[in-house]
Amino acid sequence: MHARAHAHSPLRQALKDRKTELLDRFAQNGKIDALLHGMCHAVDHAMCDAWRACGMPDGLALVAVGGYGRGELYPHSDVDILVLHDNGADDALAPHVEPFIQFLWDMGLEIGSSVRSVDQCIAEADADITVETSLLEARLLTGNRALFETFQHRFAEVLDPRAFFRGKQLELRQRHAKYQDTPYSLEPNCKESPGGLRDLQVILWMTRAAGLGNSWAELFERELLTEREVKELRRNEQFLKGLRARLHLLAKRRQDVLVFDMQTPLAESLGVEATAAKRASEQLMRRYYWAAKAVTQLNTVLLQNVEAKLFPQTSGVTRVLNERFVEKQGMIEIVDDDLFTRDPTAILETFLLYEKIIGTKGLSARTLRALYNARDLMNAQWRADPENRRLFLEILQQPQGITHALRLMNQTSVLGRYLINFRRVVGQMQHDLYHVYTVDQHILMVVRNIRRFAVAEHAHEYPFCSQLIANFDRPWVLTVAALFHDIAKGRGGDHSTLGMVDARRFCVRHGMSQEDTDLVVWLVGEHLTMSQVAQKQDTTDPEVIKGFAEKVGNERRLTALYLLTVADIRGTSPKVWNAWKGKLLEDLYRVTLQVLGGANPDPHAQLKARKEEALGLLRLYTVPDHAHEPLWNTLDVAFFLRNDPADVAWQTRHLCRHVNSPTPIVKARPAPIGEGLQVMVYVPDQIDLFARICGYFERKGLSILDAKVHTTSLGYALDNFLLTDPGLDTSYRDIISLVESELAALITRAEPLPEPSKGRLPRRSRSFPVTPRVDLRADDRGQYYLLSVSANDRTGLLYAVARVLARHRVSVRTARINTLGERVEDTFLLDGSRLQDSRLQIAVETELLEALEP
Prior knowledge:
Blueprint: H1 2-29, H2 32-53, E1 61-64, H3 66-70, E2 79-85, H4 90-106, E3 111-117, H5 118-127, H6 129-136, E4 139-143, H7 145-158, H8 161-178, H9 197-209, H10 216-221, H11 227-251, H12 260-269, H13 280-310, E5 319-320, E6 325-328, E7 331-334, H14 339-342, H15 346-356, E8 362-363, H16 365-373, H17 380-384, H18 386-397, H19 402-411, H20 414-418, H21 420-425, H22 439-453, H23 463-470, H24 476-484, H25 495-509, H26 514-526, H27 529-536, H28 542-552, H29 555-570, H30 579-596, H31 603-620, H32 629-632, H33 637-642, H34 645-655, E9 665-670, E10 677-684, H35 689-699, E11 703-711, E12 716-724, H36 736-749, H37 763-767, E13 773-778, E14 784-792, H38 797-807, E15 812-816, E16 819-820, E17 823-831, H39 838-852
Parallel strand pairs: 2-3, 7-8
Antiparallel strand pairs: 1-2, 1-4, 5-6, 6-7, 9-10, 10-12, 11-12, 11-15, 13-14, 14-17, 15-17, 16-17
Helix pairs in contact: 1-2, 5-6, 5-7, 8-9, 9-13, 11-12, 11-13, 12-13, 13-16, 15-18, 15-19, 19-22, 22-24, 22-29, 24-26, 25-26, 26-29, 27-30, 28-30, 29-30, 31-34, 35-38, 38-39
Domain ACT: 678-757, 786-854
Keywords: Hydrolase, Magnesium, Multifunctional enzyme, Nucleotidyltransferase, Repeat, Transferase
Domain HD: 439-561
């Protein structure tokens, strides 16, 4: 036993030397198959040597399964093995198998092992398709050959190719759904994401199970693939394999996700160099997205071809659509392989039929293959054909199916060949920490959101948007605007201005009316305006609303801009949209609509209406008739204009009996809109109060969405905060009492402000740092100063800003916290009395920049 314990050392060294030799050779020649097969052979030898060194019994067989069984090993992949036995008792096997597995670990192999009899293998495979898939690639390494052949025979007997196909098809759909059905996330998994290596492996598993072939060459011989498709598959497979191997080597562990901080070194390892226009990582990722797109296309073709072989009785024509197209089991199919060559206008007709024919699921393999082979026909002459322009506009004008049609057109490269400028943004990354999709996918997501407003089944999601679009004449115009709103990204210059040129050219060439053309061009140019006004400006200021209304001009434009803005923000990232942003936009829409309808923003009338509504709510709370007056007499007009009547009533109900309270009053409730917590603080004012409160919230992990700071005529601070905690694993109601008591105690103690922590940046922010920006300027009246800060988001950031302001005794009136993914753009309205000293301004700006540095 002692000799065996040391036997692994020379074997370990031999394996290590062989791996080093293979990796050095790969670094020189980049031949990925030689590396993967070489790694596998090296481990094969080590396995067999270990088997002999451990004196394993003759009745057992050592079998490679999974990727190792397939004959491919990546630098840090697990090595999956099966010790096959002939119904031996577990306690009799353990003294042999356990030391053997330990021996392999001591040799430096990361082992995934199972010990089963033939009967157990068959039962496990029947119960779990993952086990069945792993055993499908079983390969004998050493040991009892007769036992292994018995297993192979039994496994082949019970393997049902049709059931296996259906199981893997469902598994594939689930996996794709996990990755949002897109290969275009900014940090894709090169193995598991749609268009990744797993999609190629699934096909070969299916064909292997069905006896249709184990390689692309064999599938070509069976006429499941054309020669051109085999060439494309091999080229993209080699690229993806090489990418995965290099990821393992750079990370020094198993790593399949193309995380941001790996993308640049990965690109450099492939010899990709940055240019003046594009980073090395951008060029690499674009190459990846094009590969994933090609794999997705070919995977769809192959799946249908394999299905037709396995289920021939269900692959006939369902109905004739016209003389050029038929439907086969929900798929649109051309009747003649040369159709697109003879009549290229049929290319766009394919997608129009896909929209119009209810129940179609997609395009058949024959149609997809013909589109793939017709790419060279989609040239300038084809784009300029009046019939094609008519068909494309008709595709955009259909009442249903537009999103699916455009996505399918993008997958088959037809959309990028028709809209050349769209082709430029396919696979283009966005390094703004705000978008989580490539530009083309974001555009299609915005189109989807616009279309979703018009679908009755989704009316519950955004009822106000659904109501507006139902009354909007020619809503397809919004789809055109959505298609072009970001189409000029990455060209240098303002993408909104450049996009206006593209949009106008499109509208004129497609014969759109002057009214619709002007609307589309205006929307593309102004698509960021409404969110900037709502999130960064004081929308209670009549001048702000008046200026925005003048820019918008009429109700149709306002409605169109509102719908596009909501769709755009929702299409950037699941994290960016929240109910509070929705309310800001809706409030801006409603008040601007009143101004466009002829109403003058009259603060006095607004003040009166708000007070009356708040009093009505107070009566519902059974608050006595004049109880509100002591508090309201201390509040200025701005308080009532900046707070909803419901908020005014809530605060009044808690404070009307405590107007002169010497101790802090802290009250909290679940946010009236969306998820979150609303917290009110009432206390004799102190210069560092805002900083103290911000520090408390950030220590509790509560993010501030909005802050309204008021000072009463009696010198009391009346501050309101809207908070959220994405990681909260309980109800907001459960933390109300804790926040109220802890925050009140903290303010009472009035201890010196602690030093701000230099919060660690999130991983994505470290990869794409935002240069901190501070802008401090007086408003038009000179009474207040507007402070705008932009930086990477991190824990403690808002407290750091508030602490600088407190140190210079600068009071905050309102704070608008705008988190865009992992970037913040916060706006503060500051009391201007001290900031008129230019030296103080410079000192504040300098210290803020230092505080914003991570």
